[in-house]
Amino acid sequence: MTDTAPDPAPVPQRLLATATRLFAEQGYDRTSVQEIVEGAGVTKGAMYHYFGSKDDLLHEIYARLLRLQQERLDRVAAGDAPVAERLRAAAADVVVTSIENLDDAAIFFRSMHQLSPEKQKQVRAERRRYHERFRALVEEGQRAGVFCRDTSAELVVDYHFGSVHHLSAWYHADGRLTPRQVADQLADLLMRALRP
């Protein structure tokens, strides 16, 4: 018999890591709370101390990715670089961070409809804030004459994020393109679409 050391990670991180793995492997609806707590090595009481429900775990899986992306976008958007450089950096960053957290994104887009209506509303508001900050960069460039004004900024945002939201359907880690190459190519497509 071998002794295994307990996982030193904090309980919330263990629960999220286990839930992410199980939701990715089995699907959200086919994963029980019991499987999550057993996999994380905690009690149901410990889980409910941090997360009120399986729904809360699903929401947090996506929310942590969106928080990371929002922080990075805010930093890029507030920078001193020319607007074209800031937009390109933001466009590439959302691709890289989505690929680096592909399970989180895939789980969420497969399972968002299973969140409670209140949580769905909250997620849509969080995503809207991100998209509005991204759109503001497009509009800044359009006002400055750096980007063409013929295409609506909102359509440009939808175009780029349509690609980002479907990464989990086609991107494979063992494919011929690295995350950075995918990010650069998608960002370049966006920038070409905005040329005056």
CATH superfamily of the largest domain: Tetracycline Repressor, domain 2
Query: Gap between N and C termini, in Å?
Result: 69 Å
Q: Could you name the CATH topology of the largest domain? A: Tetracycline Repressor, domain 2
Mass-distribution shape: elongated
CATH class of the largest domain: Mainly Alpha
Largest sheet entry: none
Structural class label: mainly alpha
Strand content: under 5%
- Segments where pLDDT lies below 50 for 5+ residues? none
Number of helices: 10
- Counting DSSP E segments of at least 2 residues, the number of strands comes to 0
Radius of gyration: 19 Å
Could you say how many structural domains there are in total?
2
Give the overall pLDDT as a whole number.
91
Fraction of residues in H or I helices: over 70%
What string gives the helices and strands in order? HHHHHHHHHH
